[in-house]
Design brief:
single chain; mainly alpha; 57% helix
Length: 235
């Protein structure tokens, strides 16, 4: 969802949310609304917009640590889903990001007054990944890192499982290009994939990505998610 004209205030709020997720994954609690509020932002959309950029990973600690979000978290999450639906010309990756959020909301929707869980929303088309180059595949998977979850069985996850070597190549390329966000997202996927070349040295690679890019909470989120997955934390 993030655009080149994204405001510094929005980016700062996204960073705060990502830092909150990292803290929760490390056992420090989870309070996604603890960052700057949307009061006085001219429409009350700052915080929902930041949640939309963060995506389904806002609820990742609850998924991995088997806890349940409170009503305030879910209300905020739903506000983000409802406020930013995909348009007719929306890019496929953004459609999938919105799908991931909608499905995450359905997981916990029964916690909201007057809401039921409902069924899983239909998946968007993923045929655009079938013939993607390994560079494009890695880029798109990094954008869709919130779908890298234990036992995930959606079209994007299946595309990743079919091409572990290509994702490994993309991880190395991202590290060489110092694209720490892409490297961290690709590393999270690789943590879950079978057939990753043992010569990749994924654990050491993730440590390096964390060292070089870990001052960015969005890099730290993906690295910490990968580490949680490697230690066997699952829903």
């Amino acid at each position: 969802m993030e655009q080149s004209g994204t405001s510094p205030l929005l980016l700062g709020t996204v960073q705060d949310l990502a830092a909150g997720v990292v803290s929760a994954l490390r056992g420090g609690g989870h309070a996604p609304s603890a960052g700057p509020t949307a009061v006085g932002d001219g429409g009350g959309q700052l915080l929902p917009a930041a949640v939309r950029v963060t995506g389904a990973d806002l609820l990742l600690p609850h998924v991995l640590l088997r806890t349940r979000p409170d009503e305030a978290e879910l209300t905020l999450f739903r506000a983000a889903v409802d406020a930013f639906p995909p348009r007719a010309d929306t890019a496929p990756a953004i459609r999938w990001s919105h799908w991931a959020m909608t499905r995450a909301l359905h997981r916990y929707a029964s916690s909201l007054p007057g809401r039921s869980g409902g069924g899983t929303p239909p998946e968007p088309d993923a045929s655009w990944l079938d013939d993607a180059s390994w560079q494009t595949l890695t880029h798109q998977l990094a954008v869709l890192a919130p779908l890298a979850l234990p036992g995930e069985d959606c079209a994007v996850a299946r595309a990743a499982r079919r091409r572990p070597v290509d994702v490994a190549r993309g991880f190395v390329r991202a590290v060489r290009r110092r694209d720490w966000r892409q490297a961290a997202g690709a590393g999270r996927w690789l943590t879950l994939l079978d057939g990753v070349p043992p010569t990749l040295g994924l654990e050491a690679g993730l440590d390096f990505v964390d060292l070089m890019g870990g001052t960015d909470p969005r890099v730290g989120l993906q690295v910490q998610a990968a580490r949680s997955l490697r230690t066997g934390v699952s829903a």
